[in-house]
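Quick one: sequence plus 2-acetamido-2-deoxy-beta-D-glucopyranose SMILES, need structure tokens.
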Amino acid sequence: MSVDLAKVVGHKTDDVPVDWNRRDLLLYAVGIGAKKDDLQLAYELHKDFAPMPTYPVVLSLKGAGQDVNVFADKIKGKPVPGLPDMDPNRVVHGSQSIEILKPLPLESGPGWKWTSRYVAAAENKSGIVLTAENTLVGADGQVYAKLYSSSFNVGAKATGQRFAKAIAGPPQAKPIPQRAPDHVFRDQTTEEQALVYRLSGDYNPLHVDPRIGKAAGFGGVILHGLSTFGFAARAVIATVAPRSPTSPSSGDPRALTLFGVRFTAPVRPGDALETRIWEVEGAGAGSGEVEVVFETVNVTTGKVVLGSGIARVKKTPQAKM
Ligand SMILES: *[C@@H]1O[C@H](CO)[C@@H](O)[C@H](O)[C@H]1NC(C)=O
Ligand SMILES: *[C@@H]1O[C@H](CO)[C@@H](O)[C@H](O)[C@H]1NC(C)=O
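Reply:
Sure thing.
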């Protein structure tokens, strides 16, 4: 097959069946750091128990079923026309976004699927960046969530020439305003955070086996980027969403309608995180939604671990589902 990144853009891969139940939602909540006061996310008998709206990001690796999977098999997939051979051990998650179009049910039941197509490809001296658009489609045929995920294939080469083509992509964050953040939320990952997060479906050994983390140049294990993603989503909900009447210490998760970030640096299990949030005017103006921009930093080093953060949050209290 000839290598041609232009051919990759628009290529649709096979749909995969996905499912989840209440237990999966509880496990995800603790994987992204839910604390004893976040019972709306972490206790199925809570009066307003609701899914964390970012939950669907786990489904591409989890798929359907409950048992562990083999990470190496999960990422293999069928050959994509136009793509060169790339080293699966040198792929890093570049960015992730999710737009929630319909509230998720507490359990999927059968018949749900995950769709995927490539919507952008770019090559430069350092490697190849691919962006996929995914949708979560319910058994009723409706789209519940639309996601964009980009992966940076470090050292990969198609032609060696600069190239860029895109037919779609995630909503872009506005620049961070020149003022102190409107909200600051501190949180603590635990030494075992990756051991818990992986149970949601990402069994990549990089996050659990220190030898693999060292060989990959990280000096040990690193936390799943999507766990940090969930920590930041909890931060936005806790500070920007309307109070939940029955969980006054945390915000209502059902208010979050869009959430996206770039992954800018690794986080180690045990690191303390601080998310800095600015409310800005945005596409949500007039819709009862507020748009925010945010970044998440490693508290001790001050290093930005999530950048170009964008979220939209409904400001009016949500009716119970
Ligand atoms: C190539 O693209 C990646 C991902 O967008 C970026 O991080 C890197 O700095 C770029 N490298 C060059 C040489 O432009
Ligand atoms: C975050 O900061 C702590 C404290 O300085 C440090 O030990 C840790 O390695 C940092 N994390 C990363 C991924 O650099």
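The chain has a mean pLDDT of 94. Residues 133 and 148 are 5 Å apart (CA to CA).
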